[in-house]
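Morning F.,

Quick status update on the modeling queue. The single chain you submitted on Monday has been processed. Sequence for confirmation:
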Amino acid sequence: MTRMALLLLVSLLPYPALAQDAPPRCDGPEHRQFDFWAGEWSVQGKNGNHAGDNTITPILDGCALREEWTGARGYTGTSLNFYDRATGRWRQTWIGSDGRPLFLRGALDDQGRMVMASEGSEASDRITWTPNPDGTVRQLWERSADGGATWSVLFDGLYTRKAAAQ
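Structure tokens below.
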């Protein structure tokens, strides 16, 4: 038997360590905390104008949410959101078509809002997603340049679900 054939045969055999332990699943309640944001959305700014469209898709067997934003003026961006078992916190990694990243970490608060904030930068960002009783979601993005003493609003949007395709 040639060396290559032997390597191929060995590679087809099951690896005992992999067979013993199944990988952890993302089916616990902590992994479902941000599911209220999943869906196809039309987003309006505080002024009532159409700000853009956002698609939030559960991926990787429920281990993450992928965001795909298309702004009314052509700005686009995407994020990956996931529950980090090691820290017990949610994380978001965002990148926009302007090349600026945003790294957030947070949790569901006692009012059912997902609150994430940036860390380790001069300006602090805080984004709060609030599920409303009517099925809409409010996203409030605030920034502080003084360590959190004062906050200014960067974006205040209302997410309304798009009608399902008939």
